[in-house]
Amino acid sequence: MPGRQITLIALLGIGSTGALAATPVDLDLYVGAYPWEEVTTAGGRHLPPLLTLKTVRAAIRAAAPAGTDVVRRALDPDGPRTPVYRLKDRIHSWGCETHNCGANNWVVILAPDASAAEICHQDAGQVFWYGNGTGREMPEGFACPDKPDEPEAAAN
């Protein structure tokens, strides 16, 4: 019987793209790429777009209460985006609503292993911060983190 178990495990491993897609990925490999573009590493490894990774999508969904509009927007491929960047110890992805960036924009902030996410959402002058499935409105004058002007600053 042990031979059958090994065969079964091997077949499951070959045929299960879901298990392979959930394999942890170093999100630093996506820095400099847009969140919806494929990445080729220095070693020639091809990676799917950041926002298609199951672990990333799950972290984003878990950040805000179910049905929160910003989760849908953050995972939607439409709309302007900046390249992914690192700020301190987190990976950031900024996006906004097409033709309405000033009033409706967000930053997805990911742990480097995609184990957790937070979302800062600016919506018509109000700012909301989401994490661990909850959200709160931020005080007046609070702004979501923005992409640094200098690429070198993003590496720190």
Give an overview in words.
It is a single chain. The protein has 156 residues and is an alpha+beta fold. The protein has a single domain, classed as Inhibitor of vertebrate lysozyme, Ivy. Helices cover 26% and strands 24% of the residues. The chain contains five helices and eight strands; from the N terminus they run ααββααββββββα. A six-stranded antiparallel beta sheet has the order 3-4-5-6-7-8. β3 and β4 form a beta hairpin. It is globular. The N and C termini lie far apart (53 Å).
Order of helices and strands: HHEEHHEEEEEEH
Judged by helices, strands and strand pairing, the structural class is: alpha+beta
Count of separate DSSP helical elements: 5
Q: How many distinct beta strands?
A: 8
Largest sheet: 6 strands, antiparallel
CATH architecture assignment name = 3-Layer(aba) Sandwich
Please give the radius of gyration in angstroms.
Answer: 18 Å
Ends distance: 53 Å
| Beta-strand content estimate | 15-25%
Low-confidence stretches: 1-21, 150-156
Mean pLDDT across all amino acids: 81
Q: Identify the strand order in the major beta sheet.
A: 3-4-5-6-7-8
